[in-house]
């Protein structure tokens, strides 16, 4: 297939030129636009998740040759989680190239964290199938390089850190309450409150409940640590 201007522009932002642009077109096609003759990116997402995982496992091992498994695991998880994939997708403006159905497009699908993260994994798989593992590895390391260098801070699980902070002061575990939910059923936005037994609390909003909990925990942890 002859690539469209949108695909050519995205290849330029991605830093990789496809021999088979049809692979990239499929990687950017959401299920809301799929048909029997035009597949979606779900199978590519499955493959890309595994390619990303292998590259990141190598990266965290190479970055710290003395780190134990208990240290490497949270770093790895921080680098491959959906939120990170979505951040990388925003870095290359993947949303502008996504192919969405009308309903998903009107619901703001180009900005949704889950869709962006899935599509980024699918693009990695498309590069792998088009150019082999070396090409996919080079792409991932280039796009993730700054995150690999700063992963120690990102790897800190805010909910775990907040619970450890509370336990050290003989307090019960923090509680997490969904205080509001907005948006359509297929694209909800969750507002979550994190609270400790002293009554101190913080709220955060995100498109995934787990992410909102982590953000609220981080905000509360920052608050209580500043106060001590």
Class from secondary-structure proportions? mainly alpha
Number of beta strands: 3
- End-to-end Cα distance, whole Å, is 62 Å
Number of domains: 2
Percent strand equals 5-15%
- What name is given to the CATH topology of the largest domain? Ribonuclease iii, N-terminal Endonuclease Domain, Chain A
Query: Approximately how much helix is present in the residues?
Result: 55-70%
Overview of this structure, please?
The chain is mainly alpha-helical and 228 residues long. It has 2 domains: 5-154, Ribonuclease III domain (Ribonuclease iii, N-terminal Endonuclease Domain, Chain A), CATH 1.10.1520; 158-227, 2-Layer Sandwich (Double Stranded RNA Binding Domain). It has helices at residues 5-14, 21-27, 42-63, 69-80, 82-91, 102-106, 113-131, 133-149, 151-154, 158-168, 209-227; strands at residues 175-182, 189-195, 201-206. A 3-stranded antiparallel β-sheet has the order 1-2-3, covered by helices on one side. Helix 3 crosses helix 7, helix 3 (42-63) crosses helix 8 (133-149) and helix 5 (82-91) packs across helix 7 (113-131). The longest helix is centred in the N-terminal third of the chain and has 22 residues, at 42-63. The radius of gyration is 20 Å and the shape is flat. The N and C termini lie far apart (62 Å).
């Amino acid at each position: 297939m002859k690539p469209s201007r949108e695909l050519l522009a995205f290849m330029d932002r991605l830093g990789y030129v496809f021999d088979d642009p049809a692979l990239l077109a499929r990687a950017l096609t959401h299920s809301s636009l799929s048909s029997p003759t035009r597949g979606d990116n779900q199978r590519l997402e499955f493959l890309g998740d595994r390619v990303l995982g292998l590259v990141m496992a190598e990266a965290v091992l190479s970055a710290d040759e003395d780190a134990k498994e208990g240290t490497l695991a949270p770093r790895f998880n921080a680098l491959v989680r959906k939120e990170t994939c979505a951040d990388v997708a925003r870095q290359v403006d993947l949303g502008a190239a996504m192919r969405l159905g009308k309903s998903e497009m009107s619901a703001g699908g180009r900005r949704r964290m889950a869709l962006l993260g899935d599509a980024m994994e699918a693009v990695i798989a498309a590069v792998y199938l088009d150019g082999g593992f070396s090409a996919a590895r080079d792409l991932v390391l280039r796009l993730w390089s700054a995150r690999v260098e700063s992963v120690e801070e990102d790897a800190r699980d805010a909910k775990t850190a907040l619970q450890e902070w509370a336990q050290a002061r003989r307090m019960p575990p923090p509680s997490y309450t969904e205080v509001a939910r907005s948006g359509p059923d297929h694209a909800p936005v969750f507002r979550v409150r994190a609270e400790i037994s002293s009554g101190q609390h913080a709220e955060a909003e995100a498109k995934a409940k787990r992410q909102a909990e982590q953000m609220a925990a981080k905000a509360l942890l920052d608050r209580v640590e500043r106060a001590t």
